[in-house]
Specification:
- There is one protein chain.
- The protein is mostly helical.
- The protein has one domain: MetI-like fold (Orthogonal Bundle).
- It is built from six helices and no strands.
- α5 runs antiparallel to α6.
- The protein is elongated and about 65 Å long.
Length: 161
């Protein structure tokens, strides 16, 4: 390979790295938010989020990237290819991350919450000091797996340039 080919490979690796990093950071936070909203059991919100998670997980990433990039102008949104790629990857990974977080919520024992409340902890303190650290530990393998999958599937954004 010549020098120009190596430069193109480095440029592609850099693009993959920074777009994937942004999508991973946003996807973990949005996924946590979705899981929290689903666990709140607000009827209409929960059903809408179940639909979003199901559709986002079932839609091929290439299809999602093309749909966002090509339909954005229809809605009056000026979106460059990097923004469309970040949005598509974030929507995809947030749905998968939401399920990882939700299973961490479900696996958390109710007795710990009862004990914390009996000791006088508020719900916020309980979540921040007891529940979230344990959830992070139990969900870390699934989150890292999804991050790895996102990085490996990020070449799907090449279809938009």
């Amino acid at each position: 390979m010549n020098g120009q080919a190596w430069l193109l490979l480095l440029e592609g690796a850099w693009t993959t790295l920074w777009i994937s990093s942004i999508a991973i950071a946003l996807g973990v936070v949005i996924g946590l938010g979705i899981a929290l909203l689903r666990m709140a059991r607000i009827p209409f919100v929960e059903q809408a989020l179940v639909l979003y998670v199901s559709l986002a997980r079932a839609t091929p990433l290439v299809t999602l990237v093309l749909f966002i990039f090509l339909s954005a102008p229809t809605f009056g949104l000026a979106m460059d290819r990097n923004t469309a790629a970040i949005l598509a990857l974030t929507l995809n990974t947030a749905a998968f991350n939401a399920e990882v977080w939700r299973t961490a919520f479900i696996s958390f024992s109710r007795e710990q919450k009862e004990a914390a409340l009996a000791c006088g902890m508020t719900n916020g303190v309980f979540f921040r000091r007891i529940m979230l650290p344990q959830m992070i530990t139990s969900s870390l393998p699934g989150l890292v797996n999804e991050m790895s999958f996102l990085i490996k599937s990020s070449p799907a954004i090449a279809v938009i340039g």
